[in-house]
Design goal:
Chain lengths: 477, 466
């Protein structure tokens, strides 16, 4: 039956658009997470009609169907957990329309995030969501995961920038929801579909808002001798009513790993840095930069550096955005968490994470979107050692448990996928999960599309599959 | 008015759930729950989400139609309910559950009056960017369920952009939640977004979590007057292509000046309009912005230059008196509703560069039917176009029907859409309240079937039997 399906796919899409040999599939059995799952085959549609044909074949052969962009996801959302047809959108990468005057763009799902910003930069515009993987990740993937990024603190996450979608339901229905004009009448289906982690529809076209680039930007690096001083600075900046464009924190250990890799001039002997950015018109930026620097100093910052030009600014950001890659050089495997806490709980939470690291004997690097309380502790371990593997899962669970106790959440931007499905009952009752499952079933009635994601299997399964090979320089958030 | 009737056993069960003192069934009390000349058979006032769930579960079993209500300021939006057995009065769910100024987060019950919330937040110099119509009376639940927007959407977006999570009761009486209380969260489906603007047809909202915002340091308003809509819009486009990020941008038609000094206007906002800010023979563009004095001066200078370049006949800068001066703009809808015996308000949405064409098409449709009108366009591309017929007659209804269908057709040609949220009760059946059927309505019906399979929640108020 598999060979019939493959034949049908090849006939429909052309043989060059279908991969099925084991050595070809290996490339597609993982993403940016520690999960692993091999698809039955990988297909590369070029048009909406191709996607429609793939969906029909999936129905005909009752085969699971999974959408995938660049595979940079961090929760296994684009992995074929139950095998099936992995539909990779990398060839649907055309920008279909740019409407400068109305600040709109319509793109195919495979357009790379930063390519859109590059394409509209000449008009002083950009696409605001900026996950750290933005040079590789696709807008289709951003929409499916409702991706964030450092600048979402001021600009919002993906869902705040999407206006309309064309999508194909797993039943084969082609739908169009939302509209380029605001306030499309009826229910906010767009709000439901964005961030549904590929469980409701395959997206074939996206209309987004474009945002004006600010007149001025100032990037500051505040260097601290203690973690508590850094975290308390974050709390205080918010309390004073300043919303920086970005407010990122790296602890000293992570910083040293990053510096060894990108040579951005980060100090090697501090406990933590805050990477802060303020933007807007010249006068606002001057005022906010001064206020932010004052607050940092009031909390004993040893030094507050201000990037003098675009080159220095890019270097600082390069350090931040390549941090996961830098850590990947030091350890065969790392496990990255994506917990969220109310930002006033930052100091206590960081202390707790350190205690957990000591308790389980793991080095934990901390790098996170401090401004919105979104933590990314990186737990270094060797996946080939089963005892270590069990330990890392226990340590990660303990961190997440603490985030929840603080009134937080299990994922701020990476998604639930197949990594955190088992944790969902910590936040939602069975009745609540049932409501969500019924929403999924309304659009994905046979469960063919991206099966066994988001929702815990009712049997109760705590297994995590870990990639056996070391990862180096993986793009990440 | 016709009220539906319910049996004694129904009343006694409701009494059991909320106590007899919180079940109303006499005519005088029920009359205050009127929606489009329909009265419920009873009004129930639960105090907790558990009681709400009990009531809905019971209503689902008995197939009783219920409409959740708050301050009852916006029940006129949409069609009349096709059935209306129970009014579910949410005003006893009026507690602020948690407010963490340091985290800029807030969790409140649905029945909390917006004005009370504003007071609580103001103590910490914070606010919710929701200066919506009926601001002095409305409950937060009503604001969210009705999906009304505010002038501040230019900068802060609409409620969907700063609502973090919600608790609600489904049409089967299941108490559930989605989202959370932190500012960033992608755990599970964003069901709370579906509830915004759904007019209580998918669930009864019981609790809402918000992100709050620090109050801006200082604010000013800038008003430029223009001979034509075109030149006012030209200024809007220049602002949009500039680095300025104003809090609000509205363009108002000449007749607004008259409406805003009327007695009707003072009923919704006591603060009076300062003289000579807008005039009754000119269009006006008004924009608000924030910052310290340096920032405000720079912005004023840029705006002044743009106003000159676009042919403004005059300019007024409003300082700290900005909020009261323009409070009536916030109340455009209730003021327009009170300004004619048969006000019909069309909400038009188009791409910003098409506001001009949409306004012209609307003006033509309405004037060719000999109707008076007044308009307020938000810079983001939303136009509130109020038709003010001189009376309520059948002949007027015919003219308004002709005008709105021509207008809706023109908007469709402009790739926009036009709904008619407010119209006289008797006219609603002949107007396309939610516009022409949209291709995504069948998908919405799938959602409705999940949340309210018995169709007992606000039946008929929303589009296509949602």
């Amino acid at each position: 039956m598999v060979s019939q399906l493959l034949q049908a796919l090849k006939t429909t899409l052309g043989p060059e658009a279908v991969l099925h040999r084991p050595e070809e599939l290996m490339l597609y059995e993982y993403d940016g997470s520690v999960e692993i799952a091999r698809p039955t085959c990988v297909v590369f549609p070029r048009t909406t009609a191709d996607v429609l044909a793939i969906v029909k074949l999936a129905n005909q052969y009752q085969t699971p169907l999974i959408g995938r962009g660049a595979g940079t996801g961090l929760s296994g959302g684009a992995l074929a957990r139950k095998g099936g047809i992995l539909t990779v959108f990398s060839r649907m990468n055309r920008i279909l329309e740019i409407d400068i005057e109305n600040h709109r763009a319509t793109v195919q799902p495979g357009v790379v995030n930063s390519d859109l910003s590059t394409a509209v930069a000449h008009a002083g515009l950009h696409f605001a969501p900026d996950p750290s993987s933005q040079k590789a990740c696709t807008i289709g993937g951003n929409v499916s995961e409702n991706s964030g990024g450092p600048h979402t603190l001021a600009y919002g996450v993906t869902t705040n920038h999407v206006l309309s979608l064309e999508a194909i339901l797993p039943t084969g229905e082609l739908i169009r929801i939302g509209s380029p004009a605001l306030d499309s009448p009826g229910y906010d289906l767009l709000g439901l579909f964005v961030g549904s982690e590929g469980t409701l529809a395959l997206i074939t076209e996206i209309t987004v808002k474009l945002t004006r680039l600010p007149e001025a930007v100032k990037t500051l690096l505040a260097i601290f001798e203690s973690l508590d001083d850094a975290t308390e600075t974050v709390v205080d900046i918010t309390a004073r009513g300043i919303t920086p464009a970005a407010c990122e924190m790296l602890d000293g250990w992570t910083l040293r790993a990053v510096e060894a890799y990108v040579h951005a001039g980060f100090p090697l002997d501090c406990a933590a840095v805050l990477l802060l950015e303020v933007d807007g018109i010249n006068e606002t930026v001057l005022q906010h930069a001064e206020e932010v620097a004052d607050i940092c100093r009031a909390h004993h910052a040893r030094e507050v550096r201000v990037a003098r030009d675009a080159r220095e600014r890019d270097l600082l950001w390069k350090g931040r955005k390549n941090a996961f890659g830098a850590v990947g050089r030091l350890s065969p495997t790392y496990y990255v968490q994506d917990g969220v806490i109310p930002r006033t709980k930052l100091p206590a939470t960081l202390r707790r994470i350190n205690e957990i690291g000591v308790k389980y004997g793991f080095q934990i690097g901390n790098i996170f979107h401090a401004g919105d309380g979104n933590l990314h502790p990186l737990i270094l371990f060797d996946a080939r050692d089963e005892a270590q593997f069990r330990g890392v899962v226990a340590a990660a669970d303990e961190i997440i448990q603490y985030c929840i106790e603080m009134g937080g959440s299990i994922t701020g931007e990476h998604g639930v996928g197949m990594e955190k499905d088992r944790l969902m009952p910590l936040l939602f009752t069975e009745a609540e999960l049932d409501v969500m499952r019924r929403v999924r079933d309304a659009f994905n009635p046979q469960g063919l599309l991206n099966p066994e994601k988001i929702f815990p299997s009712k049997k109760g399964c705590g297994e995590i599959h870990v990639r056996p090979l070391p990862m180096v320089g993986a793009p990440s958030a | 008015m016709n009220a539906s009737a319910i049996s004694a056993s129904v009343t006694s069960r409701l009494n059991e759930i909320v106590g007899a003192a919180n079940v109303a069934s006499d005519f005088a009390q029920l009359a205050t729950y009127e929606i489009d000349r329909k009265l419920p058979a009873a009004a129930v006032r639960p105090a907790t989400s558990e009681e709400v769930a009990e009531i809905v579960k019971f209503a689902a079993a008995e197939k009783l139609a219920l409409v959740p209500t708050g301050a009852r300021t916006k029940l006129g939006i949409g069609y009349a309910p096709s059935r209306y057995d129970l009014a579910l009065d949410m005003t006893r769910l009026n507690k602020v559950i948690a407010y963490d100024p340091g985290d800029l987060t807030l969790s409140v019950e649905a029945g909390v009056p917006l004005a009370k919330l504003a007071q609580v937040l103001a103590e910490h110099r914070q606010f919710l960017p929701l200066p919506v119509p009926f601001v002095n009376r409305t409950t937060i639940g009503g604001v969210i369920a009705s999906g009304v927007d505010s002038p501040l959407r230019q900068f802060y977006g609409t409620a969907r952009d700063f609502l973090l999570g919600m608790e609600f009761v489904t049409g089967e009486g299941v108490a559930a939640k989605s989202g959370g209380r932190v500012v960033k969260n992608v755990t599970g489906y964003d069901i709370h977004k579906l509830m915004i603007g759904a007019l209580g047809t998918l669930g009864v909202i019981t609790r809402i979590n918000f992100k709050t915002f620090p109050m801006p340091l200082g604010t000013r308003g800038f008003v430029a007057r223009f001979p034509t809509a075109e030149s006012a819009l030209d200024m809007r486009h220049r602002i949009a292509q500039s680095p300025l990020t104003p809090l609000t941008i509205e363009i108002t038609s000449p007749l607004v000046a008259e409406l805003f000094v009327s007695d009707a206007a003072s009923r919704y906002e006591r603060a009076s309009m300062p003289p000579n800010v807008i005039s009754s023979n000119e269009w006006a563009l008004s924009t608000g912005y924030a910052g310290n004095d340096h920032v405000l001066d720079r912005i004023a200078k840029d705006l002044q230059r743009m106003a000159e370049q676009t042919g403004a006949t005059g300019v007024t800068i409003l300082g700290e008196n900005l909020p009261p001066a323009w409070a009536r703009k916030r109340e455009f809808i209730p003021i327009a509703l009170a300004s004619s015996p048969a006000t019909t308000i069309v909400k038009i949405s188009v791409l910003p560069m098409r506001i001009k064409e949409a306004l012209a098409a609307a003006q033509k449709s309405v004037e060719s039917n000999n109707l008076r009108w007044v308009a307020m366009a938000r810079g983001v591309g939303i136009i509130y176009f109020a038709i003010l017929p001189s009376d309520h007659t059948e002949e007027c209804r015919q003219r308004v029907t002709n005008a709105t269908s021509a207008l809706q057709e023109s908007c469709a040609k402009l790739a926009g859409h036009a709904t008619i949220p407010w119209a006289p009760t008797e006219w609603k059946s002949t107007l396309q309240i939610w516009g022409p059927a949209r291709p995504d309505f069948p998908q919405m019906q799938k959602v409705k079937a999940v949340f309210d399979p018995q169709k007992i929640l606000s039946p008929g108020r929303f589009a296509e039997n949602l």
